[in-house]
Amino acid sequence: MSITCKEDLLNRQTEVKEQINTYTCRVLVCSGTGCIASGSEKIYEEMKRLCEGIDGVTVEMQKDVPHVGVIKTGCQGLCELGPLMRIEPYDYQYVHVQPEDCKEIVERTVLEGKPVERLFYKDHDKACPHPDDIPFLSQQTRIVLENCGKIDAESIDEYIAVGGYQALAKALGSMTSQKVIDEVTKSGLRGRGGAGFPAGKKWSQVARQAEKTRYVVCNGDEGDPGAFMDGSVMEGDPYKMIEGMTIAAYAVGAEDGYIYVRAEYPLSVKRLHMAIEQAEKYGLLGDNILNSGVNFHLHINRGAGAFVCGEGSALTASIEGNRGMPRVKPPRTVEKGLWGKPTVLNNVETYANVPKIILQGADWFRTIGTEGSPGTKTFSLTGAIENTGLIEVPMGTTLRHIIYDIGGGLKSGAAFKGVQIGGPSGGCLILDQLDAPLDFDAVKKLDAIMGSGGLVVMDENTCMVEVARFFMNFTQRESCGKCVPCREGTKRMLEILERIVDGKGEMSDLDELEELANMVQNMALCGLGKSAPLPVISTLKRFRDEYEEHIRDKKCRAKVCTALRQFHINPEFCIGCGKCAKNCPAGAISGKIKHPYHINNDVCIKCGACKDNCNFDAVYVEA
């Protein structure tokens, strides 16, 4: 069928709602990448098989048997506890579901409406039956992720049923393109890809260009280690992002758009293709959308995994079939972007905010977040924290609230040490900054950047020098090599950091590190290069004593740096079994059976095999 006007859209919404309401029970199986990796596809197939058996009973029995729908949703948030499942209308949230649990779920919950309590999330031994009972979920404010985990991720009908494409109908039916830009500008929406540039300002700059061929491009590259926010939106609710892109195209007069997705997101690519095909079939994408005369065609480009292609000019170069490398600016992308034409370039999360802003107004959007950074921000919460996963909170939320109230605190009650924000190009925030608001301006003042939204929580067992080395190793490998400051500067910085963690550093290295960091930050060609030294700058500033210990005392207090560790055997615990000696690849362990063994640290290669193979905790590490 084709939807040609707002009335058609409302009629389709009613039809789909009525169809959904015929289900006595709906089984929502999380089919985001995380849960699929944990085996959720087997659970989906098993639940579908069991529930089809229910629906296949004779007509005489049908009146007493539920009509069950089993659907694949996007990410339900609690990634570490997957596979996840929700059951409607009871609103039960199950965690760690296994295929062998499916029969009991069908018998107790689907047929009788009773919970399988052992599958509930436990908050300090208290069972949490519903999503709203779980602090990780209940303390979020979901706008971008509003539908993720609640609708069929592969059905445009279900998106329409929850109000999808109403914003597009409003924009095309009762707003001029300038009015759309004015509303987005008034909302204060800033680009969620990291830079925080006002979206409305960018759109207006494209709209006023003399060149009439314009493009709308979505950055779905998301190359930060540990970041999966944009991927989760593309997997769980691709229609919202596509609707936002279509509104942007109308606002700036573009007829073609491109979604640039990293190759490591095959599920995102699959669901984007499905979403585009369904939208075209309904007349919500393509030619003469909603009978408005507006044309917009979407294309998908898969990136090759280059981190630098997250930078705007490198991304557009990659779409054109060229090597992804930044170029000198001006001209900027809004003037000469894709194929030298004016281009709107925003990331997935930015576009996904647009439909709600058009539908509910800029004033509503500004009631959330801070004055300078309205709205919400999605974060991937990972590291040494009890509850890892996908979250969305108002801008200005503190790290303390995110880590302790939403994330449940650090694992095993360990002490908090820091959090890396903004990925490899971000900075490290420490205990003193736990109560600082997270928004674009406040984070920048703390020598860090918001980035796309990765939060890696670190506890007292983390070596901050090694953290800096790890991220510098990443950015150095991902440097496109075009400009000397980034290509050579990051390499020299990495060499210094490697010397320090190997116990070969000198105090003069710290001054050289700072000098190189400032040079790269001030002279690199693109934004990624300029932010590459931030992990080093922030850790040097806040954990300089750890750097000095590595150099002066040859000590790593976290006992992480291999070259600075010494393995010893406690004679009181050693029973003389000889297992450590048998597994030592360097032959550094000697002794007699039934007598305590000894490690020769002049021969030891610090591999840790002895500690891993000791069943009596006799082997310990001394920094």
Could you characterize what this model shows?
- The structure is a single chain.
- This protein is of the alpha/beta class and 623 residues long.
- 40% of the residues lie in helices and 16% in strands.
- It contains 26 helices and 20 strands.
- It has a five-stranded mixed beta sheet, sandwiched between helices.
- Helix 8 packs parallel to helix 12 (238-252), helix 9 packs across helix 12 and helix 21 packs antiparallel against helix 23.
- Belongs to the complex I 51 kDa subunit family.
- Residues 565-594, 595-623 form the 4Fe-4S ferredoxin-type domain.
- Keywords: 4Fe-4S, Iron, Iron-sulfur, Metal-binding.
Helical region count?
26
Q: Could you name the ranges where pLDDT drops below 50 across 5 or more consecutive residues?
A: 57-65
- Oligomeric description of these chains: single chain
Number of strands: 20
Shape: globular
Pfam family, one: Complex1_51K
Keywords: 4Fe-4S, Iron, Iron-sulfur, Metal-binding
Protein name: NADH-quinone oxidoreductase subunit NuoF
Domain 4Fe-4S ferredoxin-type: 565-594, 595-623
In short:
This protein has 623 residues and is of the alpha/beta class.
